Structures are given as structure tokens and as C-alpha cells.
Predict the 3D structure of the following.
Amino acid sequence: MRRVRLITVVRRTLRARGIMIEESTDKSGYVYILTSPKTDCIKIGGTDFPPLKRIKEINSCDPYKSLGPWSLFDFRQVTDWRNVEYSLHYTFRSKLNTDIANQKELFHLSQHEASEKLNAIDEKFIVYKPKIDRMFQDDLFVTYLKKLFKFTGILNWLDIQGAWTFVLFPSTSGGRYFTLNIGPHEVAFTTLPMKSEKPINMILMDRLILDFKNVEIFVKENKGEIQENPYSTALPRAVSIIFEGTFETVIKFMNLEGVRRALIAYWNESLIQLKESNKLSVYSRFHNWNAIAELHKLDLLRK
């Protein structure tokens, strides 16, 4: 309270002197659905900072701590999180858990029913909606991403988004379809080519891929190269596979013997270490939460 009063006094003093303070008008943030194995309730909430930080707070504070650990089931990044959160709470008000004191965010509700309401959020609230629509206009692009995410299991690490990041159509190096980072370095990207060129694809994986000659042959046939230890921040066994080709070519590469094993070996270890560090990536502000939400939805439908 003392801090609030001090801020108020400072503001009044500055205004009296003719100095106006600009109030923040940024209402953007995140709405989320959390689940826990210890309760049949779900938690529906919102936050103005990445859920990674908020989930950590929830798992350490009453009354939610005793019902945890809580994990992220579904989410959206929106332009006005308080508005969307209020709308969700109002929709499910009859299912609010009133037995647990000091909270208004636990609901006797299935996570899938709540997710349906997230899917129905007015498009005007969805951040980066045009980029997501652009992604889904290219079936082969989506097919490649689904296969990459399935092989690496990265959708099992939704809780630490912001530590790993997925950026759609960044302007990096003349433009890319996407860039995926685990921590401080890239683990996959595909460039946006000029009209007369083919895209360049990069995927980082474990060096056990070097045991598979079929991969080496494929890379050479597609004007590519294999680089060992490509980033100073990568794990010691990192190998970068770079080659030219459309998404159809990349999908063929993904199906080669050894690729899935090498991807799992590197990405899984990287994600484990990333979770232990509990640090957000410097690229977290560019992460496309809603693209991941859509890909996660497709993954759930597949299962």
C-alpha cells in the first residue's frame, strides 16, 4: 500500500508541475486452461506475461499449490486478455468451484469443453491471426511442421514455451517461413526463396545422424552440407543439416532412416536442460503462441 500511495503522490506532483505521464494502453496478454492430475477441476485464467512464469507462481501459491502440479492444456495470446478471461469466466459461471475459498478460477468442467470456447474467441482478439492464416494456406508447410513437431515431441513441452520459441514469417536474413529456437540458438528454419530459387532448410540434431550414409547422400544431392558444432551455445553433439528443397523435399528427408532418432536425441536433451534452467529466451516476445495452439489442436485431433 505504501508503494501505491507513493506512486500516486509522485503522479499528482508531476501533474501539478504540468508534466503528464502516459498511461499504458497495452491490454495484450494470455488466457489459459490448466489441468492437474490431483483434481477434476480445471483452472481458467489470464496473465499479461508468458504463462511459464505464471504457472510457476500458481504451483507455489495457495489455494492452487495443494491441487498441483498444474500444467498448460490450452492457451491463446490475445489483444485484451482481461476481456477474454472475463467472458470465459462468465460463460462457465454455473460450474465455478465454490467449495475452495479465495479463488474464482477453478471450474468443474472438462478441458475439452473449455478449449472449444477458446477456439470460438472472436478473431479480432487473436494476435498474429493473418500469419496463422497464411501458414494454413500451404498444406505442405503444415504437413512438415506437424511431422517435425511429432518427431521431436516438442508439443509435450508446452509449459516452457517462451524458453523455446516458434516464429512465423520473420524477416530474418531476407525472410523465412519460420524459425524455431530452443534457448538461444536455432534448431530449425526454412527460408522464403526468391522466385528463381529453392528454399534453404536447416534442422539441428544429434551427431548420431552421421552414422547414416543415406542422409549424407540426400544432403549432397540437394546442394546441402552437414556442419558439426554449428553454435557455441548448442549441446556438444549438435550437427546442423542444411539443404535446398521445397517442403515436399523436407518431408522426404524427415522419412529417412535415422532422422527421427537423431532429432529425438538432441531436442529432448535440449528441452530437459532448458526446463531445468527455467529461463525465457531472448526471442520470447516473438513467439507465436496462437500458431502453436493451432498445431496443438491438430495434434489432439490426430490422437
